[in-house]
Each structure stands twice: as structure tokens, then as C-alpha cells.
Amino acid sequence: MPTLYINGRDVEAHLDNRRIALCKFDYAKDDIECLEAPLHDLHRVVIIGFPKITLQVLHQFVYHDIPVYFLSNHGRWVGSLLANGNGNAARRIRQYQTANDRAIAILVAKALITAKIKNMRRVLQRLAANRDQAADEQQQDACNTLQLTMHSLQNAENLDSIRGYEGLASAKYFQRLADFFPEEMPFLARNRRPPRDEANAILSWTYSVVAAEIDAAIHTAGLDPAIAFLHEISLGRASLVQDLIEPLRAPLCDLLALNLLNHKLLRKEHFEHNPDNGGVYLKNDARQIFFVEYECYMERFFAEVRGGEHTTFRRIITKMVYAICKTVETREQPQFFLMP
Length: 340
Prior knowledge:
The strands form four sheets. A four-stranded mixed sheet has the order 1-5-7-8, covered by helices on one side. Helix 3 (102-130) runs parallel beside helix 5 and helix 3 packs parallel to helix 8 (249-262). It has helices spanning 55-63, 89-99, 102-130, 137-153, 159-177, 198-220, 239-245, 249-262, 287-299, 313-330, and strands spanning 3-7, 11-16, 19-26, 31-38, 44-48, 52-53, 68-71, 77-81, 271-273, 280-282, 302-303, 310-311. It has two domains: 3-66, CATH 3.100.10; 89-330, Four Helix Bundle (Hemerythrin (Met), subunit A). It is 47% helix and 16% strand. The protein is α/β, with parallel strands linked by helices. The longest helix has 29 residues, at 102-130.
């Protein structure tokens, strides 16, 4: 499923017949690099920063039902441009009613955080096994704490308690995950807006890109991305996107970030420090490296269970969105992705 990435203010995009013509200007070398992307080959478009794009091009993306995700120059998800073909108002009404049912909200929130904790534990187990550290004291402590937290979670009686258990589990998880980052780009603690180091910069960048894909899948399914179960409704926040990214943070986003840093696909020189806000961000030229690897992760086939049908993370996102749709229709507890 091809994705077109349009990155930075040095790029111009215009329509050439039924193709998107892209020109990148290298002012230092007084050179122009051009390429074309057929509209019929595109499944999604990611626009980063402020490239020069004609309104005609944006119209064609809408006409061809190609979702467009906008990221800021620092990798923050800004919003999406989607075709206005979603007429499932009845589903959204049921979504509002279901989300207002405290019992159902707790049911969904528990399923989300149970899946998240299981996936965090599985990620730590896989990382430790690859480094022959499965028996280490820190590893055993982290996995046991996550297991106990997950069991305690099942007795939570309200959303605040569920969020509290999620916070405890995440703190223990990140404490142990820090041991797997490279020494030259260490992870000291989770921070964002702005990220203060390279580790947090690539984590935040990855979360933003995955969130954009989840948002498009939610719209396609006829749901309202602002109405969620775990995360509170807040002005301007796509709370359902934040709900559904939770089970994917560890097995998709965190593992991708570690792979990029530990295999030195991204190195310290690929990041830059912004003196205005103290943030650390992925450089413009390094984004291509990220997106090549990101596409490999999203389209790689794997089996959720031994001997089961093969799937991809993009299919997993769609499957989880439709799990929410089923809950909205039937009020049954949804099943979310569990890392094999």
C-alpha cells in the first residue's frame, strides 16, 4: 500500500495529468530533483512541515478518497484531510450513548489497558531474550510488577483507578525499557512537548505518525474520534485515537524506535537541538530513513497466533477500530491486539 511523503518547505507538489509531480530544490547545489507519483497508486499521503502544494493537488486527494495526514515540522500530528463520504450518523449516535454508559466505558478501558500491559511485558521479554537477560533481577522485577498490576486492574471499579494502574505499569515499563537504548542516545525519562533527547524525539515522532493512521481508520468506520472510553473528552483532542494507540505503543512504536537507534539507522547526527524551546527533533534529511523503516514495519506480515492467518499492523489498526464498532453495536467487551 504505497504512501507518499511530502517533506519540508523545499518541496513543491503540483498536478501533472493524473500524477503528482514533486520537485525538491537543493539551493546549496543549485539543483532540482523531480519525481512523479501516479494518483491511482496512492493509499495515503503524509505532509510534513510546509511544502508548497497546490489546491488542485489537495482536491485530487479528496476526490480519490486518499487520506492526508499533516505533521508539524517537529513531528507533531496536526490533523487529517479526509473525503466527506461518511454518512453513518446512526453509528455515531450509538457511540455517544455507549461512551456515556459508565459500565461499558469501564469494560472497554480495562480491555485497552490489559492489552497494553500484556504487550509491554511481552516487549520486555523479547528484548531481554535477545540480549540473554531474561533471568536478570531488573527484568524479573519489571515483568512481575506488570503481571501483578494487570491482575489488580481487573478489580478497578472506575476509570480513574484504571488510569492509575496504567500509569504505574507505564512507569515500571519505561524504567526497564531504558536499559535497551544505546549508550550514546540514552532514555532517562519520558518527556514530550518538547522532547528533550533523541530517544524521546523518535518515540514522539512515531506515536504521532501512528496516531494519524488510527484517526483516518476511525473516520472511515463512521466513528467520532473525539468520543472515547478511557481518555476523557477534551476540546481539540482526538480521545478515541489516544485510546486505540495504547495497545500499539510498545509492540509497534517502541520497538520501531529501538530498532532505528540500536541498529544505527538513526544516529546522533540525525537529530538537532532547537535553542528556542530546548527540544530535540529529527532532522529534515533523516525523515526518509525513518519512513522507509516505518513502512516496512507497517506492511510486514506476521501471525497473531501460532499457525494463524497472517496480518500487518495496518490491518491490526482497522481490526481494532471495528472492535470498537462492534462494542457500540452489541455492548460486548472488545478484543484488542496482543503481541505474539
